[in-house]
Amino acid sequence: MNKLWNFLKRFSAEPPFRLFSKMLISRMPCSIRTKARWEAVPRPNYLEGVLAAADEAKREGVSSIAAYEFGVAGGNGLLALAEMAEAVERETGIEIKVYGFDAGSGLPSFGMDFREHPDQWIPGDYPMDQSELRKRLKPNTTLIIGEISRTLPDHIRALREHIGFVSVDVDLYSSTKDILRMFEMRERRMLRRVFMYFDDVDFIFNHRFAGELLAIDEFNASVSGVKIDRWRGIQKHRPFSESPWLQKMYIAHDLEAITQASRARDVSVVAIDGATK
After folding, report:
1. Distance between CA atoms of residues 172 and 170, nearest Å
2. SS3 assignment, position 157
């Protein structure tokens, strides 16, 4: 029976049949993990990131996490993130709060600095109908309006949850730098691994000398305690391993916390060994 089941699973993931399987799973009452594996939701990048963050929280003994969308604009992504958070919370038992950050008035002025990709963006792009969006927000969601450089530091200082998932879709180099400073703050509360999505890293105009990619490189060069890298291995064992969004998934690794946890584990092992001798 196990051999038959394994054969059917492999068969359903083959290219001629996988689209039908995905459609079927999207309509069936499957577990959220099954839907994540098959990308059977409107924004699989959000589901994958939030689910991984909840699993990491369980490993670390953390009961509540925060999921972020930076660059809310019309709000469809924030609403989708809130829906994913509810589904993951029901299945994992980890409490998930959702936060959306946006200027509210579209992209800020940025001059002709090539690092901001002025050939692609115009100040005022992606404005928000704030009053209409607030009517649609779920109870687990908080919308924070204003310049990220001003609103984010105060938010991080007051945050009760651990940072678990962060989506960055602010287009600009300068705005991305402002976001990444959340991982430099002494008061930060983050999981040892924070799962991230960067939207603007794989277009023809993207390169590591501008935009989000430059902000990541500069962060890694200047911050020693936390490093941001590609999410290694995320493409393994997936029916749609070629999906473009997989190349946009990253992880912020809290090296300081990982080192501290390793030391605490070693101390516990030494104490146990000493007690048994």
Report:
1. 6
2. helix
Q: Cβ contacts of residue 176 below 8 Å, gap of 6+? A: 168, 170, 198, 211, 212, 215, 216
Helix axes 173-180, 211-222, angle to 10 degrees: 40
Delimit the domains of the chain by residue range.
38-276
What residues have CB less than 8 Å from 79, skipping those under 6 apart? 136, 137, 138, 141
Work out the mean pLDDT of the chain and round it to a whole number: 91
| Residue 5, token pair as written in the block | 């089941």
Residue pLDDT, tens place only, 103-134: 999 999 888 999 999 999 999 999 999 999 99
Contact 101, 152 (CB under 8 A): yes
Amino acid at 173: Y
> pLDDT per residue over 216-264, tens digit each?
999 999 999 999 999 999 999 899 999 999 999 999 999 999 998 877 7
The correct answer on CATH 3.40.50.620 for the domain covering 38-276 is no
- Integer Cα distance of 88 and 54 in angstroms: 7
Which strand (E) or helix (H) includes residue 255?
helix 255-276
What whole-number distance in Å separates Cα of residue 123 and Cα of residue 269?
57
Between CA 24 and CA 114 the distance in angstroms is 46
pLDDT computed for residue 273 by the predictor: 59
Count Cβ atoms below 10 Å from residue 175 Cβ, excluding itself.
26
